[in-house]
Specification:
This protein has 230 residues and is mostly helical. The protein has 2 domains: 52 residues, Arc Repressor Mutant, subunit A; 176 residues, Tetracycline Repressor, domain 2 (Orthogonal Bundle), CATH 1.10.357. It is built from 11 helices and no strands. The longest helix has 31 residues. The radius of gyration is 19 Å and the shape is globular.
């Protein structure tokens, strides 16, 4: 029985690999379930045994990417010498570094989300990412409360709130990507950076820490992100 479960996991991983390659090569919207089945060499029934739809397969891919983001900062999260605020900022910085490196693979997903704007798909992607990252953020906030650095009555809700800022950023992101499409990269960078600064101030108030303590985006990150999506 254990052997069958292992083979199922391998097949599921292979389907995600195939989807990732096809999304990268042809775009999310231009890739069909039939394309993924053909590349993976499985039957239609074999595909639907693991995934109910292309959207569910996207969820699995986002879970993989989120897991890789967490892995990129795992040494930071496990470093007991770091206080919670330092840990939070360094973990966010590691995640940004990973995203910049992974942009070629993620480009097709960004295109599907924002060209044209697909709010339902965006919210689906964000829900999947938040579900995976939520426990991580909760632990960091809990540490900050124990240390007396953060004043958060419910670390789990605060952790979810920090991550949910990405959901509320949808319209600004769409506007920024539209500016990038017009070649107005500097305007796009200024727009998104201004939004992130406001979010940082909000996070600092929620955690009851002094202004300038939180860095949701390292210097140059927004420009790298948007320039790579031109």
């Amino acid at each position: 029985m254990g052997r069958v479960v292992k083979l199922a996991k391998v097949r599921k991983s292979e389907l995600i690999d195939c989807a990732e390659a096809l999304f990268f090569a042809h775009g999310y919207e231009n890739t069909t379930v039939a394309d993924i089945i053909a590349r993976a060499g499985v039957s239609k029934g074999g595909f639907y045994h693991h995934f109910a739809s292309k959207e569910e397969l996207l969820d699995a891919l986002v879970e993989r990417w989120t897991g890789q983001t967490i892995a990129a900062g795992l040494d930071v999260l496990e470093d007991n010498s770091l206080d919670a605020l330092t840990k939070l900022n360094r973990f966010l910085a590691r995640g940004q570094q990973w995203k910049v490196q992974a942009l070629p693979q993620m480009r097709s997903i960004h295109a599907a989300l924002f060209h044209p704007l697909d709010e339902n798909l965006y919210q689906r992607v964000m829900r999947t990412a938040v579900a995976a990252l939520g426990p991580v953020m909760t632990r960091v906030v809990e540490q900050g409360v124990r240390e007396g650095v953060f004043d958060a009555p419910d670390p789990e809700i605060v952790g979810e709130l920090l991550l949910s800022l990405g959901n509320a950023r949808l319209t600004i992101l769409a506007e920024a990507f539209a500016l990038v499409g017009k070649g107005e990269i500097r305007k796009a960078v200024a727009l998104l950076e201004a939004r992130i600064r406001k979010e940082e101030m909000l996070v600092e108030r929620v955690l009851a820490i002094k202004p300038g303590s939180v860095r949701l985006a390292e210097p140059g990150y927004v420009e790298k992100l948007l320039s790579a999506l031109k």
